[in-house]
TrEMBL record:
Positions of transmembrane segments: 53-78, 99-122, 270-289, 301-319, 325-347
Keyword Transmembrane helix found: yes
NCBIfam families listed in its UniProt record: LptF_YjgP (TIGR04407)
Membrane topology: Multi-pass membrane protein
Pfam families noted in UniProt: LptF_LptG
Gene source species: Methylophilus aquaticus
Coiled-coil residue windows: none
Protein name listed in UniProt: Lipopolysaccharide export system permease protein LptF
Keywords from the named record: Cell inner membrane, Cell membrane, Membrane, Transmembrane, Transmembrane helix, Transport
PANTHER family: LIPOPOLYSACCHARIDE EXPORT SYSTEM PERMEASE PROTEIN LPTF, SLR0882 PROTEIN-RELATED
Subcellular locations according to the entry: Cell inner membrane
Amino acid sequence: MKIFKRALSMELMTSASAIFLIILGIVVAQRAGNIVRQVSKGILPNDAIGTILTFSLIKLMPMILSLAIFLSVLLTLTRWHRDSEMVIWFSAGLSLKQWLWPILRLVTPVILIITLLSLYVMPWATDKAEAYREQLKKRDELASISPGTFKESSNGERIYFVESFDKLGYEVKNIFAQTRQDNKTGIITANRGSRYQAENGDHFLVLHHGQRYETQPNVLEISTTEFERYEIRIETKESAPEPITTQAKSTYDLLTDPSQADHAEFQWRLAIPISATILVLMAIPLSFVNPRAGRSLNIMSALLIFIVYNNILSIFQAWLSQGKINPWIGLWPVHGCFVLLTVYLYYRRQHLQPLVPQLFNRFFRKP
């Protein structure tokens, strides 16, 4: 039995690490693509990609770890079934239930990490991400410009285009700016420029060796001016601080004078490690391989169960935040249903027959 446990430990750790890296790579690619798309549209500055991506990964880390340990247990035991190693286990007089403690001992540290991330680290990352986005909103017009894209000012009176910045963002090259003022449209171009801060705190963009073209509606004449130095005042953004969201509150704040939304958020944070534990236990009977079925059937079933479980939890969380469910009930009915499903799977694998038909025959068969 010690040989089985040692082999299980090594293979489970190896598969969990590989699956975690694969899922992490998929999530990074998906989130990075979404953030880059926002940068290309001018919604976010290009220097914010790394920070926002890091906070997003920290927020998703509990779910990534939950899915990783669930699939690792499932795939490891599935291979043991397929290679007839489980037959040796059962031939030694050991049952399927005796896999519980070895697997639980292996995944308990991961469950504790998921609990820590869900209760403390995830709200901290959400709070920092929201604070960082607020900071981006208050940045001036030039700081929010991405090289190679057109950017409109907040008041709609200016449009900027900059080909490139230096590393510190103070020197710009090949600038295009369009301004609207006093019913006049001005177009300014310059080969290079720089920014500086005046004594009163105002920021200016200084253009060197450029041209300015000015037009008026219904007037065919175009005024052209060449300049050695031209200053444009950069507008700063003022925005009122937004209230902290429920997702960004600490767990301690959720428990002190909680609202319906606070109850829902706290139970969602608890649901992540609880669901991870239930899914790991469910993976043991779910790993049984039917030789007539395809090899990918177990993986498809596991992904479907994971998606359905989390979606139902999200629905109950929304109902709880809306006051449609009592906080004492909360998300526990969802956990209870999947616990019953796990018990049913254990019974079915232990007796090699479905539970429902057996009960039907017992209570409804003719005398």
